[in-house]
Amino acid sequence: MRTLVLNAGFEPLAVVSDRRALVLVMTQKATVVSADADHPVLGATIAYDRPSVIVLTRYVRIPHGRTIPVSRRGVLRRDAHHCAYCGRSATTIDHVQPRSRGGADSWENLVACCLKCNNLKSDRTPAEMGWVLRWTPKAPHGVGWVVRGVERPQREWDEFLAAA
């Protein structure tokens, strides 16, 4: 089970395990906003409702310039596991401007790619191959990328994620 953690201003921060959320509540660092009474957490002498949404009691400052780090998993997720050249299922990533020619490891230079297209392209640019990218690669944005763990949201979280 997972729990959505909200900042004191009710903006979503992260998703944590229900055990971590219960510890935050028991140490009075957070309060429960929404709980699942159907699946209680049993202690030695007491049963607690499993928290599904908690809010921190103190405001946590988050830098506004927070960028999403580039990763292989992130590029594949951003491109929905589709090859940027042929549209088939992608299992690898490719540098649009090859690293051997000064291409950087950035959201704008990396795309999901199938193994066949990756091997055919090698260290050439798409223009040299006569290929066209199906979409322009860019850095991802949105609450699903900024808040860790929101890839699979629960129904109880909708009202809090919609505000973000």
Automatic annotation (TrEMBL):
A Pfam family annotated for this UniProt entry: HNH
GO molecular function, a single term: endonuclease activity
Protein's UniProt keywords contain Hydrolase: yes
Signal peptide: none
InterPro entries per UniProt: HNH, HNH_nuc, NA-targeting_endonuclease
Presence of keyword Hydrolase: yes
UniProt keyword annotations, A-Z: Endonuclease, Hydrolase, Nuclease
Sections of the chain in a coiled coil: none
CDD domains according to UniProt: HNHc
Domain (HNH nuclease): residue spans on this chain: 70-119
Protein name, entry field: 5-methylcytosine-specific restriction endonuclease McrA
